[in-house]
Amino acid sequence: MISKKCKYALKALIYISKNNGDETVLTSSIARDENIPRKFLESILRNLRNNKILHSKRGKKGGFALLRDPKEIYIVEIMRIMDGPVAMLPCVSLNYYKSCEECDEKNCKIKGMFENVRDKTLEILGSTSLHDLNQQYNQKEAPLV
Amino acid sequence: MISKKCKYALKALIYISKNNGDETVLTSSIARDENIPRKFLESILRNLRNNKILHSKRGKKGGFALLRDPKEIYIVEIMRIMDGPVAMLPCVSLNYYKSCEECDEKNCKIKGMFENVRDKTLEILGSTSLHDLNQQYNQKEAPLV
DNA sequence: TTAATATCCTACTAAATAAGTAGGATTTAT
DNA sequence: ATAAATCCTACTTATTTAGTAGGATATTAA
User: Fold this and answer.
1) Would you give the distance in Å from CA B127 to the centre of its chain?
2) Which of A20, A79, B89, B111 matches a 20 to 30 Å C-alpha distance to B97?
3) CA of B108 and C1' of C7: distance in angstroms?
4) In degrees rounded to 5, what are phi and psi of residue B91?
5) With an 8 Å Cβ cutoff, is B129 touching chain A?
6) Which residue(s) pair with B33 in the sheet?
7) Alpha-carbon distance B86 to B113, whole Å?
8) pLDDT per residue over A80-128, tens digit each?
9) B34 reaches A (C-beta below 8 A)
10) Is strand D less than 7 A from the beta carbon of B28?
């Protein structure tokens, strides 16, 4: 399961992508339209800004906007920022590798299967962009990445 | 990430599958060989017994054994018993469905992608058995189930 | 220059989950 | 009878999740 924080982040970014081009988007608009607690959302958006996904403008007429083209922001990047590893085992994570300590990694019987799960998952999350999710989402039979 | 409890369960079941046919397997042997805290493992194995994966024999010469052929025990079943849903969103879970409450499910922009992830994940976890993991694990290009 | 409106920041809290531990009760083989 | 197992309940400790509270700071516009 992804955390609610991560789900809120995805919903907020999709919302911002949709309204992009014009101006910045207000936290309060997103909170209202997507049913996300405002203060909680604030900290999520600030986190995304710290991670170079968003830029922000303070004060009246302030708000948030994407730093990049929504076609080039992939879901996996957001998920890693919000929840950390995508993999199901620490020893199989590409971006947050940790040994399992209690087990002998060379002879681990479950590692291979979870590498396989990771790869299939990343094929999807690593090739789907914010722009894709604002279109009618269609499963790609052979993902580009 | 799966929980350590779940990882321990998988390791223990693989261990039991390997030694199956002969007699029951002791909690203490598994704990020793797989570096799992014994008391914690006890509760895991009892849980698996309550869920009809194992049967147990009490007293001297007791222990645990599989109730079914290891070729017919799929990893997904164990993961659901130990950790609950496999899906990344409650509203996308096949076995633990829950609405997301704050969002309008019909118009949810992220649901489709996570259904896709779920399906790819289940293709693997639902077609890999304990027996498979005791062999050299090889990625199946076109899973049977 | 002042008021309104945003984001920014730190700290706190409450509930749930994870990862066990403790201490025996019960059952079975020898 | 005794040793060796599983069985059972309750407790603990740490971490994570999902927020809330209360302002400080910056910006725009009247």
Assistant:
1) 12
2) A79
3) 28
4) -80, 0
5) no
6) none
7) 15
8) 999 999 999 999 999 999 998 888 888 999 999 999 999 999 999 999 9
9) yes
10) yes
